[in-house]
Amino acid sequence: MAAIAIAVVSCYPDEELDVPVNDDQLKLETELDRYIEENFTQRYGMAIRYRFEDRFVSPGERATPPELEVVRPMLDFIETFWIDPYLEVTNGREFFEDHVPAEIVLLGGFIYNDDGTVTLGTADAGAQITFTNVNAIDPDDLDWRALQLQTVYHEFAHTVHQRYKLPSAFETISPSGYTSAGSWFNLPDEEALERGFVSPYATSSPNEDFAETVAFFLFDTDFDQNFTVDEEACETAECEARNAGRERIRQKLAAISEHYVKVTNVSLEELREAVQAKL
Q1: 3-state DSSP call for residue 159?
Q2: Lowest mean pLDDT: which of 26-30, 95-99, 131-135?
Q3: pLDDT tens digits for 193-227?
Q4: In this prediction, what percent of the chain has a pLDDT beyond 70?
Q5: What is the CB neighbour count within 10 angstroms for residue 162?
Q6: Do 75 and 50 touch, CB atoms closer than 8 A?
Q7: Backbone region of residue 91 per phi and psi (left: phi > 0; alpha: psi in -120 to 50; beta: other values)
Q8: Which residues partner with 131 through β-bridges?
Q9: Do residues 62 and 248 make contact, with C-beta atoms less than 8 angstroms apart?
């Protein structure tokens, strides 16, 4: 058995010798890894995973790795729009450092699921946040930027309810509006609003409702116009239904804001101002 083990192990170095080595690429990887170690791992205890591993996606999911040249720009984007706003607000540094996930995973494309849906990002009980579509990085592309910001603010918001639960009676604000994890994507945006949700995905569960509301509040420049300011002179049932939905969203946002101050000592309104100043 020992001889067999030695024979099996010894075949791997021979295989690797056949792989062409690019000295410039190896040097870049070394510099990149050093930058990650100094600016993310040592500073925040956060590992950056940009080399693809099967464990980053579940069975039935398909994804691609990021291209090497997009990793550093993506890290700069993450630092500017996610980390820095927390460091700039009152008590934000303490909150961020105490809740920062242990791993950040970068994937080159989207995560495609067998049911036909696309996963924009994931979080694992506050321990990991996954960014997708990194290969298409373009901070000047409003759609790409909104996708990334919605992902990170949404996933980081999960750490709050995971550690401190939801605000009291949060689930009762839109009790009949929730759908399910397997049907939310059939719901139009307008119907989600009428039910009191900022997006169809928010209707999938109270936890997702909480995270989506936080994310949209932070990154959507037109949040008030879209979700909290009533339409005037309503003359149709549809208009009245949308305004009723906006009232529910106002109630949710008030409950979430109060909850954030109570359990994290961070003002969500101040954090939004810091985020919006960078957009």
Answers
A1: helix
A2: 26-30
A3: 999 999 999 999 999 999 999 999 999 999 999 99
A4: 84
A5: 14
A6: no
A7: left
A8: 106, 121
A9: no
What is the model's pTM?
0.84
Identify the CATH assignment for 165-279 out of 1.20.120.1200, 3.30.565.10, 3.40.390.70, 3.40.50.300.
3.40.390.70
Q: Pick the residue with more confidence: 39 or 185?
A: 39
Task: Read off the tokens for 43.
Answer: 């500073």
What is the sign of the dihedral through the CA atoms of 104, 108, 113 and 119? positive
Q: What is the DSSP letter of 125?
A: T
Question: Which pLDDT tens digit goes with each residue over 129-161?
Answer: 989 999 999 999 999 999 999 989 999 999 999
What are the structure tokens assigned to 191, written together?
Answer: 């119907």
**What does the block give as tokens for 5?**
């083990």
Q: Which residues contact 183 (CB under 8 A, 6 or more apart)?
A: none
Determine how β-strand 103-106 pairs with β-strand 47-49: parallel
- CATH of range 22-140; options 3.40.390.70, 3.40.630.30, 3.40.50.1970, 3.30.43.10: 3.40.390.70
Question: Would you state the structure tokens that stand for residue 110, as one six-digit string?
Answer: 């989207």
**What tokens were used for 174?**
């839109």
Residues in the chain: 279
Q: Which pair of structure tokens corresponds to residue 266?
A: 């961070």
